[in-house]
Amino acid sequence: MKTTAVYPGTFDPITNGHVDIITRASQLFSKVIIAIAPTSRKNTFFTIENRVDLAKAALKSIANIEVVLLKGLVVDIAKAEDAVILRGLRNGSDFDYEFQLAEMNRQLSPKTETIFLSATAEYAPISATIVREIIELGGDVSAFVPKAVLEFIQQKRKS
Length: 159
Ligand code: ADP
What we know:
By secondary structure, this protein is α/β, with parallel strands linked by helices. Helices cover about 45% and strands about 20% of the residues.
């Protein structure tokens, strides 16, 4: 029986949609590892260090989670932790992409299962990409991101 889930993503930045998935998963698994993938985005609001720190701050009230920097393949951390891979599904486009990704991960590691949680209706429209666009255009993202992310944005805008 698996008791650990690895939830991988870019979390650029962590949104209320991610927090909802993680909160629900933390009630289903003994441990949820949030594995944050570095990307090559430069000169933007959220460096990899920012993304890790903001995820830790946003999730500090949940005891059975761990935030790590993802080094290498998701299937490798899942195998090392004897975990399932957890992903969120918002809509049909997510489904098409996630179905393909899950199958490729299965071919890389046949014993590693991917499981999905469907987005809660309230959070389903939230996308980190759109959140970033709103931030870059100076808009208000308070309905979409945790308080820690909002505070970071306010600080950054002042400096
Ligand atoms: P990616 O980098 O693959 O686009 P993200 O880092 O944004 O993905 O998110 C990681 C996972 O969280 C993915 O499975 C994605 O579908 C899911 N996710 C993102 N936003 C939401 C949301 N609002 N509700 C539920 N799941 C979400």
